[in-house]
Design brief:
Layout lengths: L4 E4 L5 E5 L5 E8 L5 E3 L5 H5 L11 E2 L7 E2 L2 E2 L1 E4 L2 E4 L12 E6 L2 E7 L2 H6 L4 E10 L2 E10 L5 E3 L2 E2 L2 E3 L11 E5 L2 E7 L4 E7 L2 E4 L8 E4 L5 E6 L4 E6 L8 E5 L7 E7 L15 E3 L4 E12 L1
Antiparallel strand pairs: 1-2, 2-3, 3-4, 5-15, 6-7, 8-9, 10-11, 11-12, 12-13, 13-27, 14-26, 16-25, 17-20, 17-22, 18-19, 18-21, 21-24, 22-23, 23-27, 24-25
């Protein structure tokens, strides 16, 4: 039996986390006025049953790589200090069993550490601690990534929330848009061997816009995005001002008719290991720790 940890706070917010399925946050909802309990994330049992083949729900964790890496003739491989390793898209954290380090009515802390299997593809000893905590109806998550190896440890990290569309019970997908801050759009060349950039003004991106090819943004004026359901008068807000290493954000949905839309904070762009001169890969000194936090909220728009 797969353990599902149910969280609840005094404001009536609820969340569901499945540690052994990649530390998967599967649900976050809170009461909002006359709307009752509003769901922020896509929660689909059929997707859970297809895990790990499919994870198009909740909030999968991305580590030690964001998106994909590419070497000539070797897709989903990366190179570090002259050695080549295979690595699945978005890394192995979302496909790994996490352990519960602490649990309370409104919070859970999980950990992922190196194993014999991870050392085969990622030759570093690490400890990744992730806490989900409800407070005042808002969902906070805090992470710490520790290098427990002797050599410096390279990595990429991020999150892949599948926000539910629409937010209102009587709304339509086409009533929604994404509120984006000013930044720079990074456009890939080939398999992200390079990028060219262009200004990206602050704007409202309609979810009817095709983003299957992913809009990749960086140099953001602020690290806060909103998914707005104008017809319902609701919005989901994702804020990572307390995670400055997450310099980038990806906007993605598989088609223009899906019941989800992804707003993904990343520390690097795709194929970052293949572009070392761009210095996107985070490198922790021995004993070093990266700490960061984010929050998501549901509120009246």
């Amino acid at each position: 039996m797969i353990e599902r940890i149910q969280l609840r706070d005094d404001a009536g917010a609820v969340a569901t986390v499945i540690p052994e399925l990649g530390g998967w946050l599967l649900r976050y909802a809170r009461p909002v006025g006359s709307h009752g309990l509003v769901e922020a994330l896509r929660d689909d049992e059929a997707v859970v049953e297809r895990y790990p083949k499919e994870m198009w729900a909740g909030n999968p964790v991305l580590f030690p790589m964001v998106s994909y890496s590419h070497l000539p003739g070797a897709q989903n491989h990366y190179e570090w200090e002259g050695r080549r390793f295979p690595m699945p898209q978005h890394g192995f954290a979302r496909r790994s069993r996490w352990t519960v380090a602490a649990c309370a009515a409104d919070s859970v802390t999980m950990e992922l550490a190196d194993t014999a299997e991870t050392l085969e593809v990622y030759p570093f000893r690490f400890r990744y601690s992730l806490t989900y905590r409800l407070a005042g109806g808002r969902l906070h998550w805090e992470q710490s990534i520790e290098n427990r190896s002797e050599p410096p440890m390279p990595f990429g990290s991020g999150f892949h929330p599948y926000f539910r569309l629409p937010l209102g019970a009587n709304s339509r997908r086409e009533d929604c848009h994404v509120r984006c801050p000013r930044g720079i759009r990074y456009n890939p060349v080939g398999l992200s061997e390079a990028y060219f950039t262009e200004p990206f003004p602050a704007q409202e991106v309609p979810v009817s816009r095709d983003v299957a090819g992913t809009i990749q943004l960086g140099d953001l004026a602020e690290r806060e995005f909103g998914l707005v359901d104008r017809a319902a008068g609701l919005e989901v807000v994702l804020n990572w001002e307390a995670a400055p290493e997450h310099r980038f954000c990806a906007l993605w949905s598989r088609t223009t008719s899906e019941d989800f839309y992804c707003i993904e904070p990343w520390t690097a762009l795709p194929n970052a290991f293949g572009r070392p001169d761009d210095r996107e890969i985070r490198v922790l000194a021995p004993g070093g720790v990266l700490r960061s936090s984010m929050w998501v909220d549901i509120r009246a728009a």
